[in-house]
Amino acid sequence: MIRNRATLAASSAHEVALDCIEAAIDAAAPDVATRSAVSREGETLTIGETTYDLDSYSDVVVVGGGKAAGGVTRALESILGDRLSGGHVVVKQAADTDTVRSSVGDHPLPSDRNVEATTDILETVDDADEDTLVLFVLTGGASALLSAPAGELTLEALQTTTDRLLSGGVAIEEINAVRKHLSDLKGGQIARRAAPATVAGLLLSDVVGNDRSTIGSGPSVPDETTYEDALAVFDRYDLTPPPAVRKHLEAGRDGKIPETPFPDDPAFDRVRNYLVGDNATALEAAAVVARDAGYDPLVLTSRLRGEAREVAKPLVAIAEEATSTGTPVEPPAVLLAGGETTVTVTGDGGQGGPNQEFVRSGALDHGGDAVIAAVDTDGEDGSSVVAGAIADATVIDDRERAREALLANDAGSYLSAVGATVETGPTGTNVNDVAVLVVPDSTE
């Protein structure tokens, strides 16, 4: 899976970190996650603890989108066979689907082809009736891949808004609160359009804490945010939306545009949403690998968030404490954490992403011999073409230059130059970031 593994495996500790990364990504594979949650026996389809009588439906369709939507859809095609009528999903990489049409879209900014494919999906949902079972697939990346500008908004306005939010260090929950109110699909609106059909949402979470209304901006989940909340995001981060976006949000705040559906909306009477995989799934698999390698694993959290360069510091401090005192875990040990860190861009077009900044900051701050690794499970760290990085403190040969690179959001250039970036290519899944700190035995 890791294309440049031979270059990165500089020590046994590096090898363990790489093994943990591969296990984490494997465990989050969409087909594996889907088959753990969905099964069929005869005409009974089971999702989680709920059963659906396929004889009760004249049509069963799959719609949705996300980076892992292709894998989920292929698993559903295999499970449902000829009971599947069709459908349409939007993916980032070409997916070899059969009955369900798959369209390649763009991420992280929406594009014309995203809008075109989403329009077709909405038409499929609009045609659904009470005899239709809609399996709505939603995975990381769907907020951009499923794009349906609301009202008179243009695609350009959505692109500009998304770009400003992503580069402004805005938390994903707040970004999605805005997206929901600029869309004809997000924030529970797919449920509103599908009614009176039965809808089963299959969600692979890329959101810290697994808030289902935030995953993919919650098209099939009730929305408790408002137009007022969306406007407040721009004020809170001192960001300026395009004039058309502000006008639209203010119209919604003033009651001139209907709100997204709240939890008591009857649109959700025949809707259930199921979580089929998340960051914890990946961390648990990494822990098993660490234990098998003779290390004591400790999962610290699956809820990392905040500025990547700052989040790294307390984690390396824990590694140092483990080396010095044997708490909270006795070396040799592996510390595991996951979540979604952010980067506030202040530099002039540097290279890298949150995971590379995490590793760079951790190596710069670390006073021990731990190996620090962090990757985005989708294989793309921010807008870069690498998954993340792996390093120890020895990569810092010039501390002043290292600090300057970090401040310029150019951690990627330095890490690439020293051969520390992790290359996987697109993995087909997305359950946030995974950080691995391998703390060797101090007696070695």
UniProtKB/TrEMBL annotation:
Top-rank lineage group of the source organism: Archaea
The MOFRL-associated domain, residue ranges: 17-250
Pfam family, one: MOFRL
GO molecular function, one term: hydroxypyruvate reductase [NAD(P)H] activity
One Gene Ontology cellular component: cytoplasm
Main enzyme class: oxidoreductase
E.C. number: 1.1.1.81
Gene3D superfamilies in the record: Glycerate kinase, MOFRL-like N-terminal domain, MOFRL domain
Domain MOFRL, chain residue ranges per copy: 334-433
Keywords assigned by UniProt, alphabetized: Kinase, Oxidoreductase, Plasmid, Pyruvate, Transferase
PANTHER family: GLYCERATE KINASE (PTHR12227:SF0)
Name of the protein in question: Hydroxypyruvate reductase glycerate kinase
Source taxonomy: Archaea, Methanobacteriati, Methanobacteriota, Stenosarchaea group, Halobacteria
Gene: gck
